[in-house]
Amino acid sequence: MVATDRQGHIHDYCARKIIVSTGYYDLPNEMGVPGEDLPKVFHYYREPHPYFDNDVIVVGGKNSAAEAALDLWRHGARVTMVYRGSQIHPNVKYWVRPDVENRIKSGEISAYFNSRVLDIGPDFVVLDTPRGSQRLRNDFVFALTGYHPDYDFLTSVGIELSAEQHRPVLRSRNAREQYSGIYVAGVIVAGSRTSEIFIENGRFHGKQIAAHLREP
Ligand SMILES: Cc1cc2nc3c(=O)[nH]c(=O)nc-3n(C[C@H](O)[C@H](O)[C@H](O)COP(=O)(O)OP(=O)(O)OC[C@H]3O[C@@H](n4cnc5c(N)ncnc54)[C@H](O)[C@@H]3O)c2cc1C
């Protein structure tokens, strides 16, 4: 196996078994709309301060979107949420959900539900909403629409994926071993259903793999 580190140095490894646990955070789910490649559009949220006194759209209605919308609003951005669902997702953390719902109810954060982004321009965004098409003034867009594993990478190392949900096909459920001595661990076990595995349940995969490796 050949690996490249952050400094670009190449490392060669020889191993009889490989554990792949590459997660899903490197590849955002894109909206596929015109203007998504503008520099004002982000798929990762880091900090609120540069967006003070700006018109910011947060796309999505799950944890990332809810937390980013609240943080941006608390630091002085004018925030509009756009979500294809009919309400903030029920799985949003129980202490975050009422907070964002109350900000929406009071009008402090605007929200368009059952809506999606159609077009993004330098200073505007066009939405498809139940009340028809809406053009909003806009400075920045945070498209927090989820992420997905690198399926091409997984198949390139010999991992077979199921047709529908891209879940690794396992030889033994308990051991998480693939046919060719490759183990999978963490959220990639859930394929495209990334919310099924999180820190609390994914951390047990290592124990299962270690136990299997110890077997004669
Ligand atoms: C915004 C956000 C908030 C979250 N909040 C919570 C929370 O509060 N509680 C919770 O339980 N879960 C939360 N999760 C989910 C949780 O982060 C994941 O379920 C968990 O991190 C998955 O662990 P993992 O080991 O499978 O992948 P990761 O933790 O993503 O680790 C994968 C690692 O592999 C590296 N990698 C990827 N490709 C390669 C490659 N080709 N070569 C070498 N290295 C590679 C990545 O850089 C990364 O370091 C959140 C997720 C997101 C995106």
Describe this structure in words.
The chain is α/β, with parallel strands linked by helices and 216 residues long. 19% of the residues lie in helices and 23% in strands. The chain contains 5 helices and 12 strands. Strands 4-11-5-6-7 form a 5-stranded parallel beta sheet, with helices on one face. Helix 1 packs across helix 2. It is elongated and about 65 Å long. It binds flavin-adenine dinucleotide (FAD). The site of flavin-adenine dinucleotide has 15 residues, from helix 1 and helix 4.
* CATH topological fold name of the largest domain: FAD/NAD(P)-binding domain
Assign the CATH class of the largest domain. Alpha Beta
For the CA atoms, what is the radius of gyration?
Answer: 21 Å
How many structural domains are formed by the residues?
2
Instruction: Write down the overall mean pLDDT.
Output: 94
Number of strands: 12
What is the 3D shape? elongated
**Main β-sheet description:** 5 strands, parallel
How do the strands line up in the largest sheet? 4-11-5-6-7
State the gist of this model.
By secondary structure, the chain is of the alpha/beta class. Helix content is 19%, strand content 23%.
Which key phrases capture this entry?
FAD/NAD(P)-binding domain; alpha/beta; elongated; 2 domains; five-stranded parallel β-sheet; 12 strands; three-stranded antiparallel β-sheet; 5 helices
Summarize the SSE layout with pairings.
Layout: E1 2-4, E2 10-12, E3 18-20, E4 41-42, E5 55-59, H1 63-74, E6 78-82, H2 97-105, E7 110-112, E8 116-121, E9 124-129, E10 132-137, E11 140-143, H3 151-156, E12 182-184, H4 199-202, H5 204-214
Parallel strand pairs: 3-12, 4-11, 5-6, 5-11, 6-7
Antiparallel strand pairs: 1-2, 8-9, 9-10
Residues 21-23, 25-26, 63-64, 153, 186-187, 197-200, 202 line the site of flavin-adenine dinucleotide (FAD).
